[in-house]
Amino acid sequence: MRRDQVVDDFFGTPVEDPFRFLEDPTSLDTKAFVDAQNEHTFRYLRRLPWRERFATRLAQLYDYSRYSLPIRADGLMFYGRNSGLQNQPVFYRRGDGVDSVFLDPNTLSEDGTVAVTNLTPSPHGALVAYALSSGGSDWQTIHVRDGVGGRELSDCVEWVKFSSIAWTDDERGFFYTRFPQPGTVPPEEESHHSKVYYHEVGTAQAADRLVYAEPGDPELGFDPHVTEDGRFLILHVWRGTSPKNRLYVQDLAAGGPIVRLLDQEDAAYVFVAHDGDVFYLWTDLDAPRRRLVALRLQSGTTTMHTVVPEGAATLSEAHRTLDRFLLTYTEDASQYLQIVSKDGQEEGRVPLPGVGSVTGVDCKASDPTVYLQFTSYLYPQQVFAYDVDTKVLSPLFPAERSFDPELYETTQVFCTSADGTRVPLFVTAKKGLRRTGDHPTLLYGYGGFNVGLTPSFSPSVIHWLEIGGVYAVANLRGGDEYGEAWHEAGMLDQKQHVFDDFHASAAWLIENGYTRPDRLAIQGGSNGGLLVAACMLQQPALYGAVLCQVPVADMLRYHLFTVGRYWVSEYGNATRSKEEFDVLYAYSPLHNVRSGAVYPPVLITTADTDDRVVPAHSLKFAATLLAAAPDEADRVYLRVETRAGHGAGKPLSKVIEEQADMQAFVCDQLRVFAPSDTDGPTS
Q1: Per annotation, catalytic residue among 193, 319, 503, 646
Q2: Does residue 526 have an active-site annotation?
Q3: 129 SS3 class
Q4: pLDDT at residue 683, rounded to an integer
Q5: Could you write out the DSSP letters of every residue in 364-396?
């Protein structure tokens, strides 16, 4: 394998980077490495006798109708539906009780890799703007259709990512955010220089009006929204992935200037609704678990009045419906919906189907009907309608299941991390499971970016349960399960807490008779890929196999690629100070592989079109593991998908193939079935 003499100096510490050539996806050596590793990996996976049966059963489990949260527009409704095994959900329009196909993205590409990432009708439904992504890319192109007949218009808005679509009330156009066209700025600045534009339907993008930009601070990003009554343009102003943001406002009705309402980046501020010049927001200012506040739009003042104070549970979302607020709270990593009056008085909870997650809410200030999505580990995502006046919850779409949930149960437990912190852990398994200490167990985690892992459904988890596995999810520090303090306890120089929490979760499963180290696999993607990569290196004897998906592995150079610079507020920057370098160098997976060490078998997955976490992270990590133990090639596998991106919008066919590969790998490494067992599961 090619190795180069590349050495960087970080504050007096020389750091070798022999596989830097793998950062160039166009080089012949990179392509040869990817081809060789894919050939090695797929040759191994395809000889596993139960792999095809897994794929067949997974397809059966995915074959049920599922619906997206509907979007309303003046009596019309737009929603997505996957009838079962479609690569992409089809979007429907409902009007006068009649449902018709509005947009089928499966017709836009032969391999199903073109996905709709955003579909936003104009206020009265006359027009619909939608964004397309190809090959899983973060880059999107916005198109427009007639909202009644679905006729495609000529509009094409390019160089968009991380932006909403905000229609004006007159339906003549919408606000959006775009970046410079690639090639017009240096590659390292392609995710800088975000600007807000207004596009008038029927005109060329070149004629779009620049609404707002900050040329003196090119790292700022903008997310535009227009209030339900069309009066105000709201700009959520963000810097990377930091939860601390700014909030700008423009009175569209009065035609006034953009007002920097909150401009300090000292906390999170999320607009909820307004009554005239009174704005309702949720914030974590002086309230790590967040509160609902009212703020009057007056130049020169930011005096806030607390409407709903911070409580024991974490306020995750807030919406306005009629003269009430609907608040989503997270309590010990599961969610509930609380209704409060305009002045903050509690009026009861929405009667959800059980312990789980509210994954979406659609409210209108002028309509008592609320649409919401609910899910849990054993409850496929379902859309409900809730009437805030009658307090009746009813399914909006029919529920379908491809398994029997009564065979399984989910239990929440708590383990103790290295510093004494109490960490939640969800464990799902067959009912009546005897704790014999030898069950194959899959432990999943993330732990970062203020992302909480509340219960969610996946057919692949059901398959794992069917073949006798135990599935556990650890709610690590770095997420938002307990508010901003919980997040901050797992970021920057506190990142080791996340790994300690995960180790503690694994130890709890072993100590309590669920499994043993050689029967315990760990799984994580993106920041979670970093998690499992670091954990397998720190405590290799604790784990029997590793599923490391699209990992961030090079913590010294991650900020140099695509949107990596957005993560500096979460991880730090190794070139900025010796202190930050020391922290990152101490756990960076790429730099903590020890020559001759025995690590658990690992399957590293990535995709050649991932422009979120570039595949170089996976390639360099795999190469480093192989170089450290050249005789252990049968313990390191790299799977590089084509045209799949970071994960969002991935065609279902590719999802099923990948899940079958991962579970076949885990079953082989944990010795779940005998080598002669050609059938595998008996379900």
Answers
A1: 646
A2: yes
A3: strand
A4: 33
A5: ETTEEEEEEEEEETTEEEEEEEEETTTTEEEES
